[in-house]
Amino acid sequence: MSATHKSPRQEMIGIIARTAVADGHFPTFVPGLAVHRSSNAAEVSCGSYGPGLAIIVQGAKRLMLGEETLTYGASDYLVTSIDLPVSWQIVATPDEPYLSMSFRIDVRKVAELVDRIDDAPTPLPASPRGMTVNKLTSEMEDAALRLLRLLDRPEDSAVLLPLLEQEVLYRLLIGPHGAKLRQMATAESHPHQVGRAVAWLTENYASPLRIEELAGRVNMSVSSLHHHFKAITAMSPLQYQKQIRLQEARRLMLQERLDAGAAGHRVGYESPSQFSREYARHFGEPPMRDIGRVRRSLVHRLNGETEMLSEG
């Protein structure tokens, strides 16, 4: 295939590879748009996914949500409609690095668009989960490609970005995940109420969780909150809070160099032994052993990248 007749995926690979010049996560000047590269199969990482669209153009990724695993690659796209703590592992090689793009979903703009297309048919969701993998359609791929092209033509961004964002949201709303996005943008729907509960837990993860108070905050009964929260997040509210706490503690130890006792106390654990047990259960190792391994892995990776640069 000639250079002037690249497939959409080849063109997306080229744009992302030029933008993400090294391994890592790269926010761009286009609001909400980021690109990602990883040259090696990475160890398990963790973090939170907010409402957004993610498309892999090369490689694959395994996402662990609660006790479930989602796998997606270059023929799929991922949609997340609510903040979710997840773990993931990238599948890549140096010859074919993992390359992907992500675009943040503004729920307020979803609500505005729903009012304009309310008569459009919406497929019923196969699952209430707030994170799903769907097959990439030619229409979605084309909209995502034109969004990426803005990275090569920044002078077009001010005029074209609002139009392209609206098209991406429209494609999502009429796709398999559309009903969930509509519900998240509709006040007093169960997904919207769960979203409010998630927002409170995310902001107050270090505070004791009183489920009756949380249910009252979002105008739900305790039983309804438990049922819909688990259906959407694959976790109970307590399990959700625990994952947020453990991920934040890991970040504090890695980035702020707190010891395990201080990190556990900061995120709300009163018992150091309980923190250590739950940390080991979640990450597979006690806190300091896990942090030491991650730091050694980062040093090894940085040394490898330095050698590659010096050879080049």
Automatic annotation (TrEMBL):
One term of GO molecular function: sequence-specific DNA binding
Q: Residue ranges of the HTH araC/xylS-type domain?
A: 195-293
* Gene3D superfamilies the UniProt entry points to: Homeodomain-like
- What SMART domains does this protein's entry cite? HTH_ARAC (SM00342)
The alphabetized UniProt keywords are: Transcription, Transcription regulation
List the Pfam families hit by this protein, alphabetically: AraC_N, HTH_18
Matching InterPro entries, A to Z? Homeodomain-like_sf (IPR009057), HTH_AraC (IPR018060), Tscrpt_reg_HTH_AraC_N (IPR009594)
Name assigned to this protein? Transcriptional regulator, AraC family
- Species this chain originates from: Sinorhizobium sojae CCBAU 05684
